[in-house]
Specification:
The protein folds into two domains: 1-40; 52-270, Porin, CATH 2.40.160. 14% of the residues lie in helices and 49% in strands. The chain has helices at 2-36, 185-188; strands at residues 52-61, 64-76, 85-97, 104-105, 120-121, 126-143, 151-167, 170-172, 177-178, 194-197, 208-222, 229-246, 255-270. An eight-stranded antiparallel beta barrel has the order 1-2-3-6-7-11-12-13.
Length: 271
């Protein structure tokens, strides 16, 4: 029995170095695998930045009204949100200018020869419109990046303005239509002979042009609930100057410049 125990003990003692060597070999192999195996790096696709926008708007000026469109690209100042941005944009705008003395009225006479009096502007010589093309910049000055909050921006823009003067025709009780000239001004200003306006289409083919430039500045308040939509109002001041004096009303001073205060409503989208 003692001989058997000695034999088993001898076998165990002899096998210990073999087991230790095997463990060392396995560990070295695992280490080699860990060292030589290439590391897989997963690329996370970043969302496409929202840096472009297109919008429409309508303006109410102290001397008329206007509609406009803007196309811009933003330069984000803060990585965490496109709500903080500076925008450079192109704009096109169409306005109608009205003189402070313009008052719509109807003839004081009753129907004559079955002709019903129509509204007209007494003393109006020309309808004056302006078509503008300009470049602008909008800078954020206050607000938060969270959706649903208001951001406040300062903007300014300027460019070229094309003035369009369309003769204003009135219709007389004798059935004729006249515009204001040196030879017709007495009839044109005789209230007792006027039936009303001859209509917008009359005089379109006689339109004249005046070149000019404009500039404006103001504040832009964006109320959009999403960073991909535009819902804003603007308040500002606009100035225009033309190469010639513009006549809108008879017996009033003609000037080559216009200054107005405006408010506008704007909507659109970003992508």
């Amino acid at each position: 029995m003692k001989g058997l125990i000695k034999c088993v003990s001898l076998i165990l003692v002899c096998s210990l170095p073999i087991v230790a060597a095997a463990q060392t070999t396995v560990a070295a192999t695992d280490s080699a695998k860990t060292t030589t195996q290439p590391r897989v790096i997963k690329h996370i696709k970043k969302p496409k930045p929202v840096d472009k926008e297109f919008s429409f708007g309508a303006r109410l000026n102290t001397d008329g009204w206007g509609i406009y469109a803007q196309r811009g690209k933003s330069k984000s100042d803060m990585r965490e949100s496109e709500y903080f941005y500076n925008l450079r944009y192109w704009e096109v705008e169409f306005d109608e200018k009205k003189h402070p003395k313009e008052i719509k009225r109807t003839s004081d006479l009753s129907n004559f020869n079955d002709t019903k009096p129509r509204a007209f502007v007494y003393g109006k010589v020309n309808n004056f419109y302006s078509l503008k093309l300009g470049y602008g910049f909008r800078r954020m000055i206050a607000g938060k990046p969270d959706p649903g909050t208001v951001s406040i921006h300062w903007f300014y823009s300027g460019g070229l303005s094309l003035g369009l003067l369309k003769p204003y025709y009135i219709e007389l009780y004798d059935g004729s239509s006249i515009k204001y000239t040196d030879s017709t001004k007495e009839e044109f200003l005789n209230k007792n002979d006027i039936v009303g306006s001859a209509g917008f289409a009359k005089g379109v083919g006689e339109m004249k042009f005046a070149g000019g430039a404009y500039g404006k500045t103001g504040l832009h308040f964006d109320f959009a609930a999403s960073k991909k939509t535009i819902l804003a109002i603007e308040f500002g001041i606009n100035a225009e100057v033309y190469t010639q004096a513009v006549q809108i009303m008879a017996n009033q001073k003609d000037v080559p410049y216009f200054v107005n205060i405006f408010g506008s409503f704007q909507f659109g989208r970003r992508w």
